[in-house]
Amino acid sequence: MTRPIWIKHAAQLVTLASDEKGPRTKEAMSDLGLIEDGSLWIEDGIIQAVGSTKELEKHYSERIHEAEIVDATNHLVTPGLVDPHTHVVYGGSREHEFEMRLQGATYMDIMNAGGGIHATTRMTREASEEELIEQTTCRLDSFLAHGVTTVEGKSGYGMNLETELKQLRVMKRLQEQHVIDIVPTFMGAHAVPPEYKGREDEIVDYLIHDMLPVVAEQKLAEFNDVFCEKGVYTPEQSERILEAGKRYGLIPKIHADEIEPYGGAELAAKIGAISAEHLLKASEEGIKAMAKSGTIACLLPATALYLREEAALGRKMIDEGVAVAISTDCNPGSSPTTSMPLVMNLACISMRLTPAEALTAATYNAACAINRQEQVGSLEVGKQADIVLWKTKSYQELQYLFGVNHVKSVWKKGVKVV
Ligand code: NIG
Ligand code: FE
């Protein structure tokens, strides 16, 4: 038995507790379940009680002497942040492409010339499993330092069975070794490998018949993602891949309408994807369809900034009733960052989310986008004690003082890790 932890006197305790299940939409995205002078009692890695300091003091009066006390006076306390969309396992780096893009080359130009995703694929194929573990560990450490306690991770820099499995095995090993929880997604359809150029339907068949069954059999992924984009996979090809994944129990996600409007949001709604990602160019009808189907919009404002594009219409999506989550998209090309606090700032600045909505999008709705809302994303009795204590006194101040890491301490499953 570990000693109980009593976090008390939080200036603001953001619980995000609610009786409603499922992703939050509209006004519910602003309801943070805020408790002033808030308090949490943690035992065996699980939250045992949440309330005001007065309430918990009374309830635990007989046991206070047992507890390790954390005085959070003048500090904000929130759930651990959840990043529902990353490409965190990769070999090498692409800083030269950053300079090329500053000189005018586009993301797609670079990819079509064999760079971009293809360059990282070559470097990931060459890297050993140990090298990938080492590089990814550094990135996960950085996530943790920024208050992120759960991340989704995608394969997709293999695009052959061997390397896709290698990336997924790295995630499985890191789930065992690293304190961060990693939720794995298979993304064999991240690009069309050059060896399949002009034979796109053959790679779709290969993905469906040779890759998906093995990934499913080895239980290496929970989700299946496709880059549905002009010049990559068409909506029809994406649908085939995602429907095939469903038959193996893999839940669909879609990189949709990132560079051009392409019917990705509509497809996400049609096939019941749990989330659609990017959506910079999503159509009006696509947004309406997602609101109706309950598909979560996973928006990536750091990617838009990095590609010097207009951000997605986050404000409009919330007003139309779409549940919005946000993410770093951590990857070596379009968003090499591990800072979810920066992503929250950008969600406010470039998509006009309110500070409260941005926090919901980075915690509870993010957990819903990776099916972890029963375990993480809010501070409620019975949930994992994944908690961040911030240097700021309020969530408003956290979103306002931008581009700075305000994390003071992080607990993962009740253990102080930062
Ligand atoms: O989500 N758009 C496709 N995939 C990634 C980028 C991957 C890369 O450039 O390496 C994204 O932005
Ligand atoms: Fe992505």
TrEMBL record:
Q: Which UniProt keywords apply?
A: Cytoplasm, Histidine metabolism, Hydrolase, Iron, Metal-binding, Zinc
The annotation note on the cofactor reads: Binds 1 zinc or iron ion per subunit.
Enzyme class, first EC level, given as a word: hydrolase
> Mind telling me which Pfam families this protein's record contains?
Amidohydro_1
Reactions catalysed according to its record: 4-imidazolone-5-propanoate + H2O = N-formimidoyl-L-glutamate
Q: In which pathway does it act?
A: Amino-acid degradation; L-histidine degradation into L-glutamate; N-formimidoyl-L-glutamate from L-histidine: step 3/3
EC number(s) reported in the record? 3.5.2.7
Keyword Hydrolase included in the entry's annotation: yes
Sites where the protein binds Zn(2+):
85, 87, 255, 329
Q: Which family does it belong to?
A: Belongs to the metallo-dependent hydrolases superfamily. HutI family.
Per the entry, what this protein does is:
Catalyzes the hydrolytic cleavage of the carbon-nitrogen bond in imidazolone-5-propanoate to yield N-formimidoyl-L-glutamate. It is the third step in the universal histidine degradation pathway.
Protein name, per record: Imidazolonepropionase
Write down the species.
Lysinibacillus halotolerans
